[in-house]
């Protein structure tokens, strides 16, 4: 048993590469943030439903359940769109959090700058609770709140009991709104907050508690709420609303909020990310490893055949290939199935012709001519050997000769034939030297000529001749036609 386990571990190590480790790392990070969101925001029923769907999908892949697999593939795109629509606020918040990250630390909004602020808040809130003065005080954290709050009047004042009491006095126009404290100062008063949809958590409480919970669900801010009817003090933070039983607990919670923000800002992001939520991170890595073992880890070897183009490069300009070379090759490649999934395109076979000489040549097609993606192995190439003849060639300019076909209709004669261009540049190999003195055109049909005409004719290249510019393979021929004297006399009317 031990021998089998050791053998499996050795095989796993041999078939695991750097890309696999990075793959697991990326999936682990995604799992971590999804699980973190579920722990804070999602309902238990939603977690159960998604777990059932994920289990069904895994079972579909393992047992090759064809119809169920088709259903998953057909609904995947629509499901992603629906999830984006449903959780768009959470996605937007995630991007806002990333905007606020600082990799090297530094003070931010949530940092406590005035040590006396906590005592001021505790004593003020305690007095409000004793005198049944309703109040809602928001302590801004690291996240910006502009997207979540509306209205309000800018103050930029130092928090104090007289100022806060004058704001939340029943006769004050801003007493129904919230006070926003940012960087140790009262930023705005009379602010409207988003309301929570968690009716169970705010059961029996008023609008202030609902607004405080709503803001804590959408940001990292902490809200202090004083109930006007009950004279109780509650704290809304991280999506939870709890009543405070003593002033000592209240002070400890406020100090903990500010110290957490301060420590977070002073600690670099990388170190902070490693220290926080160790258990959740371990679970994310475990799930990513299991997912990789189930779907990505494939050690069996498969063989596949690809047909790819052949490209020829670096052929000397003095040489010409007498017969056509193959333009495509068939490759047989082996490797793990997952590597084929990641590499569906094989580059062309590249043949270096710099060593080709005049006469017969042979070039073996080997693995060095083929670029195989990492993890795959070339088994066979067809053709495995290129055999061809190369001849020396010279570049010359030869006149174009118009080939005539047939006879001009009776009563007409061709007086002149002009061709443009009159000559073309061709490359002749050794077999054509001294033999090819002009380049003929395809036949010009004389039987169609009863008047001046312009024709476009294709060049008929002799064996051993190649156009230097292959795009100019036609010429324009102008034929001048006249009526003969006999034809002209026949057309003249008789004398009266």
Description:
The chain has 496 residues and is α+β, with helices and mostly antiparallel strands. It has four domains: 15-100 and 271-296, no CATH class; 116-266, YojJ-like (1; 301-383, RNA Polymerase Alpha Subunit, Chain A, domain 2; 393-489, YbbR-like domain (RNA Polymerase Alpha Subunit, Chain A, domain 2, Beta Complex). The protein is 37% helix and 27% strand. The protein has 13 helices and 22 strands. The chain has helices at 2-14, 18-40, 44-63, 66-86, 88-99, 116-130, 161-168, 207-218, 247-266, 269-275, 278-296, 337-342, 485-491, and strands spanning 135-139, 153-157, 178-182, 185-191, 222-226, 233-237, 240-244, 301-313, 319-321, 328-336, 349-352, 359-364, 377-382, 385-401, 404-405, 412-420, 423-429, 439-440, 444-445, 453-458, 465-467, 474-483. β3 and β4 (185-191) form a beta hairpin. It starts with a helix and ends in a 5-residue tail after the last helix. Mean pLDDT is 80; it is low at 102-110.
